[in-house]
Amino acid sequence: MPVNSAVRRRLEAQGFCDLDEATLDEVGPWLRWSPAFCTLFMVVGVALNSSAVLWALAVTALLGALLPFHPFDLLYNYGARYLTGTRPLPHQGPQRRFACGIATVWLLVTGWAFYAGAPLVGYLLGAPLILVAALVSITHYCIPSLIYNTLFKARGSASS
To answer: 110 with 54: CB under 8 angstroms?
Structure first.
């Protein structure tokens, strides 16, 4: 199914630029893979008041900020894509790595709130974290990427 222009703009805002139509049509839907896994683990960590789950996810997010790919992309690139018959996911741009950096800090602080015995603070931090991650998982609309594009006037700074 072809990716529409709004989705293309949202993916370009995340740093997935210069992808030809065939590549984008094939992997565009799968660029939700890592955000969806992150959202799932965030929900589990917050629901269980688990600093351990949130801190483990923070390490994963930190790797996503430092590497040109997210660790969950490896599960797709070296496993699931062979079941789907699709090409590997492209490397992430600075926008998505910036988003992973923000998530790292947010996860650490949210995990700390649960660890320190402040579950209300953990829930107040965790709920918007989950919503931001779910938004990109469902719509490809990544608020941290848009912040990056605003701060650094990056290429692909479309807001739709």
So the answer is: yes
Residue 15 contacts residue 94 (beta carbons within 8 Å): yes
Distance set, CA 36 to CA 77, 103, 132 (Å) = 15, 14, 11
Q: How far apart are CA 126 and CA 83, in angstroms?
A: 33
SS3 85: coil
Tens digit of each residue's pLDDT (9 = 90 or more) over 41-85: 999 999 999 999 999 999 999 999 999 999 999 999 999 999 999
Pull the structure tokens for residue 58.
């923070």
Tell me the two tokens of residue 61. 């997010």
Q: What is the DSSP letter of 29?
A: G
The token pair that represents 93 in the structure block: 């741009």
Whole-prediction pTM = 0.90
CB 28 within 8 A of CB 10: no
Place of tokens 């969950």: 72
